[in-house]
Amino acid sequence: MNDPIGDFIIRIKNAGNVGKESISVPFSKVKLAIAELLSAKGYIGAVSQKSKGDAKFLNVVLLYTENGGPVISGVKRISKPSRRLYEKAKTIKRFRRGFGLSVFSTPKGIIADVDAKKENLGGEFLFNIW
User: Fold this and answer.
1) What pLDDT does 112 receive?
2) 10 is in which domain, residue-wise?
3) What is the CATH number of the domain that holds 102?
4) How far apart are CA 36 and CA 66, in angstroms?
5) What one-character-per-residue DSSP string does 80-105 give?
6) Helix axes 4-18, 29-40, angle to 10 degrees
7) What is the mean predicted confidence (pLDDT) over 13-25?
8) pTM, to two decimals
9) How many structural domains compose the chain?
10) Rounded-to-integer distance, Cα 15 and Cα 56, Å
11) pLDDT, tens digit, for every residue of 41-90?
12) Rounded to whole angstroms, how far apart are CA atoms 45 and 43?
């Protein structure tokens, strides 16, 4: 697998589309940071780390709206392994007028677009989620 972040966000979206309660993905510190951010912003539920033998996994609980649809309706990977994109703090814009979320990797960790703008931090533009 060449793009673990892209794989992670697509797995979350696809599991929500088929109505799964939770998913388990291979563990990494970046995925854990992204999952904790998405959980704090209300896109996914609880996040826990599990291990089976030597392998570590990240267990993610998915959230659904009142009418039964998934909270996450779409994702778009922006910075890819083949093409890295960076944004300065001054050029960060709100995604979908605040109804979506842009995720950035900054020197202070993985943060959302609103927080990056507030703290005057730029960084690698990872993906959009709505």
Assistant:
1) 96
2) 4-129
3) 3.30.1490.10
4) 23
5) BTTB--EE-GGG---GGGGTSEEEEE
6) 40
7) 96
8) 0.93
9) 1
10) 20
11) 999 999 999 998 999 999 999 999 999 999 999 999 999 999 999 999 99
12) 7
